[in-house]
Each structure stands twice: as structure tokens, then as C-alpha cells.
Amino acid sequence: MTGKRKLGRGVAIVGAGMSNFGMFPDKDSKDVFAEAFSEMIAGVDKGFDPADIQAAWIGNFSNDFFVHQAHWGPIIADLTGIAPKAVTRTEGACASSTLAMRDGLMAIASGMYDIVLAGGVEEMSKCTTEEVTEGLALATSPYEGDAGYTFPGVFGALATAYFNKYGAGREHLMNITIKSHENAPLNPKGQFKQTIKDLMEARKAKAEKKGLPVPGWADEKEALWDPAFNPPVAWPMHLYDCCPISDGASCVLMVAEELAKDFTDDPIYVVGFGQGSGRGLHACPSLTSFEANKNAAKEAYGMSGLKPRDIQFAEVHDCFSIAELIHIEDLGFFEAGEGYKAIAEGETRRDGRMPINTSGGLKCKGHPVGATGTAQMFEIWKQLRGEAGERQIPGRDLYIGATQNLGGTGGTCTFTIFERR
Amino acid sequence: MEERPFSDISYRQFLSEGKFMGSRCRKCGELYVPPRHFCIACRSDDMEWHEMVGEGELAAFTCIFVAPPHMVELGYDRRNPYCTGVVTLKEGPRIVARIEGVDAARPESIAIGTPMKSDFIRLGEGEGAKTLLAFRPS
Ligand SMILES: [Zn+2]
Fold first, then answer.
1. Which pLDDT tens digit goes with each residue over A69-94?
2. Beta-ladder partners of B123
3. Which of A152, A158, A165, A305 could make an S-S bridge to A237, C-beta 3.0–4.6 Å?
């Protein structure tokens, strides 16, 4: 009934930019978007006139709630000078800017446009934690709200189901946190730049200075087991299983394949894209997998002709530690129920067989929700071109990377595959 | 039999009357809780109301220590956490619901697979009254 999905015309990314991620009381959404946009322009190797952008899509989840400003298309159009041409806001919760990229992809593949901008922005830190929690809860299903679920709560429930089915435990999720924090100091744009060890030492120094008992943690896991260091949020999700509240923006410049070399000798091609929709916790077929992920993976692998083993590294949506574990299994990088063992053996570390979240992930880099998808692509762009600096994946010739972006509690999942030729 | 529309509004009305109801497809027998307007298995829209037995077992859970505003209003916080879960019903479908009668401050004491029976939590009075589905160990 439906044929194999193929792009009508190839699409390449020829520039990428990302603002610093963090909490910026003195900056608003326009300020951080300007930062990302300027970096993107400066990063186009052969130079580029922004007046050539024919249309743009901007992901934003909920600035209407967070900063009482909803209509972001024209604001970004004005800021960047794209006005009076079309700029459209896309919404897919935490996957909003991947959907912006998808719209750009379709527009170029269809022949409608040749040069488009896709990006995203979110400004969350002007709200209290309670307000942000309430704002994010706009992306859960109504049944979960009635039952008292929070965002971390949904992932906490998935974690208990995973632990029960596969025999994993909190100590396995800690491996994910420790790994993300090991990559963090290598990312100058990230919100957190400290390893768990750094944070432990800081805690000890603080206790000593105040004349309080100095914690005697033997290693990172002992600290992470200590509720004074790592309090429960939605058990078994503790503080260090959760990504922070962030402000930030990111964007990519996309062009038709035949134009790519006019911009750079080293473009990155989008070779596979897939998206899926999930249902509430009560209706999803599995409590240890996101069916939306599976659909996204099937579509993206189908479009690209690639298999999970062809993907050399990936940025996946680790809004909560358990999510990273589920994603790497859903995408076929590891068998179901095997991911946590591979993580324990270091396979997802920067120097491992399948590096995951070299950027530090959402956990350390930060998660301004609408900006996350294209920020993941920024990392792929840097790594594939060998420009990731200190965090460059060592000793490998990289040519295939992927991003997986999740919106809500799995309601929207995307998987995008990038190739350097 | 009941003539109410197969909607979330009807579902909540039933809860307020102390009834836990799903919708069943008359054509293929598929059962949905909360109710669906039409059957996504066979695409029939010939549905009927079905009262659930209210028994099942705990399939997943979490204990919430950082509560959302509507739960803080009810007195829940870091010192007084609450449990919410997913229950696999005897009839097959799963449902999300508050889990009562467990020690949410000691999540390690709560086990997946625990047999559960349904209960109702009644909140507020008059116009603002609300009834929520809950489960507790049976
Ligand atoms: Zn049916």
C-alpha cells in the first residue's frame, strides 16, 4: 500500500550554530537565538549571505507558557532578517526543533525551496521550578495528570518496569549519569562542566568549610546512592537522573544537495528521517520501550538503507537516565535488555564501540526543550567534521552519525541519520 | 443499557458514581479503559459500556517526592511522597492510577506484580468535586 519513503531530492546541512546553554537571567530568547544564528553564519566555510534563506522553521514548545510569548515565527523572521519571507513555528514538545528540521527537509526534498534555516529556542529559567514542572506537564497525557504523574514520574515508572523485566537497578542508571558528566567538561557550551567526582569534591570542601561532617564517599556511585547528595525526585529517578532547566537556541542551515558544495567542501547529508507517535502509559504496548521510537527507527533505516550497526555514534534524548537506556535498545544499537550491560562495560563512552551523547547529553549540556533537536545535530555536525575539539571521538574515521529526539513522555519520537561523504 | 457517549467526560462521571467503566467493541470484543469512541483494532464504532471488575496487578510505579502544584495542595511533598502506578487489569488493558495503601516513603518496599484492587479517591465538594481512580493492594 505504501512504497519505500525516499527524498525527492537530497538535502545537506552546510552550517550549524548553538548558543551557550544554561540559565541566563540577562538574556531572552532573541539573544540566545542571535548567538546561535551568528555562529551558524560564521561556520559556513565558503561564506554565505543570510538574505539567501528562502524560508525557516523554528521549534518552540511552550514559550507561550514560560515567557507569555507564543508567535515565534515572525519574531525570529524579524531578528534574523528573513522577514518578509516565511518563518513557521513547529511544536513537538522536546522534539520541536527536529520537527523544524523535518519541515525544512520536506520543503527542500519537494523542490519548494533550495535554502532553508531550521532551529529552535526555549527560555525556561525565568520561571520557578514549580512553574517549569507545570509547563512541561502540558506535554503529558490527561490521564497521567489525574493520576498525579509528573514528567520525571512517567520515566520513573518506566524504570521500575525495566528493572523488573531485565534485572537492572539504579546502579546501572548511575553509569549513564557518570558517563555524561565525564563528557561534560569537554563541551564549552554546556550548562554543567563538572564530573561527578568534581561535584563530590566541591561538596566535601563545602562541608569542611562549614565545619560539618565531611562525606566519606569511596566513589561516584556511593555519592549517588546518598540521598543527601542525590535526593529522590520521582523514585527511582533521583536528581542526577534528571536534566536541568535551561535557556538556549540552536540552528542548522539546510540546502539542496546540488548546491551544497557552493557552501562548503564538507557538507553533512541527511540520509534518513523517521518519526513516530506514542500513546499514554496505559495504552502503550510495552512499558520498557517507546513504540514511537521503533516507528521512527524503521522509517529512518528504511529511507537510508542503513542498519543499526552502520551508525557509528549518536546523540539520544536523555531527559532522564532511563530514557537513554531505552532509546539505545529501541534504535537497535543494543538488544532489548542488553543495553545496561553494554553501558556498564563502557561501550557508550567516548572511546567505546558506540559513543552516546559525547556532548554531555541533555543531562549536562542542558535541555532548553525547543532548541534540543537541532542542538543534537550541532554535535553530529562537529563530530563528523572532526571539529569537536577535546571531546572529538578518538581514533575513528567518522562518517555516519544519528540523533534521536523525544517529545513529551514519548508522544513524539524522531530519528535522523546523517552522512559525511 | 447506558446511552452516554464513549468519552472521557462520561468516564469521569461514572467514576464520580463509584463505577469503573470501559468501552467494548461489539464487533471484535476489544476492551478499552478509559473508553474509546471507536475500536482501533477493527475500526468499528459499535461500542458498549462495560463495567470493570477492578482487579489487577501492579505493572510499574513511581513515588513522587517533587510534587506538581495540584498535589502539593493536597499536602504532598518531599516529606510526604505519594505513589502512582500502572496496573494491568484482569480483563487485559492497563490503566494509570494513584496507588494507595503502600509506603511511598519506602519505594523499595513496593513490588511489581502485587495484586491490586480498585478504589476511588474523592476530592473537593460541590462544583469542584472530583473522583479519581486508585488502586490498593488486595
Ligand atoms: Zn473492534
1. 889 999 999 999 999 999 999 999 99
2. B130
3. A152
